[in-house]
């Protein structure tokens, strides 16, 4: 996508409620650039107040010890929790992450294990919103969990 087409798309999406905008973006044949493309993220579910993302681990996601770098789970959580918040917003309202807290429970190999992040809103107010999230592996084991606070741009 060109910069101009991305700006046009952003203008159109800004006229839609958050959940509709998220669903419209995921339905595009050519999605705008986002971190999920770089990491191979898939959008599994988008509902009001809930978002689910997944990805498969790979060797280039390794930390110096050879296991999954914590930033991968943090990015999955930031995406899932942020989109959970976004799904509740009215047209023309944006947000930004103010705070992200992640607790890591276990290490993960980088050999193609599927990770699933689920984000759900806790509170959506006038100026801020909070959400919580969990990352589990393909066997349902908890890998990480976290919370976020988002600043709403009204």
TrEMBL record:
Q: Which Pfam families match?
A: 4HBT (PF03061)
Query: Where in this chain does the record put each Thioesterase domain?
Result: 66-143
The residues forming a coiled coil are none
Q: Does the keyword Transport apply?
A: no
InterPro entries assigned: HotDog_dom_sf (IPR029069), PAAI_dom (IPR003736), Thioestr_dom (IPR006683)
Kindly indicate whether the keyword Hydrolase belongs to this entry: yes
Checking PANTHER family in the record gives: 1,4-DIHYDROXY-2-NAPHTHOYL-COA THIOESTERASE 1 (PTHR43240), BLR5584 PROTEIN (PTHR43240:SF1)
Q: What is this protein called?
A: Acyl-CoA thioesterase
**From which lineage does this chain's organism come?**
Bacteria, Bacillati, Actinomycetota, Actinomycetes, Pseudonocardiales
């Amino acid at each position: 996508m060109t910069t101009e087409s991305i700006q046009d798309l952003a203008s159109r999406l800004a006229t839609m409620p958050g959940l509709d905008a998220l669903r419209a973006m995921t339905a595009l044949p050519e999605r705008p650039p986002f971190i999920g493309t770089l990491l191979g993220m898939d959008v599994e579910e988008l509902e009001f107040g809930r978002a689910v993302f997944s990805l498969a681990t790979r060797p280039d996601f390794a930390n110096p010890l050879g296991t999954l770098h914590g930033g991968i789970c943090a990015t999955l959580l930031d995406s899932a929790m942020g989109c959970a918040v976004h799904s509740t917003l009215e047209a023309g309202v944006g947000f930004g992450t103010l705070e992200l807290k992640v607790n890591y429970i276990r290490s993960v190999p980088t050999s193609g294990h599927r990770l699933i992040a689920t984000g759900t809103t806790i509170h959506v107010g006038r100026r801020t919103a909070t959400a919580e999230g969990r990352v589990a592996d393909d066997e349902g084991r908890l890998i990480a969990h976290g919370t976020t606070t988002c600043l709403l741009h009204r």
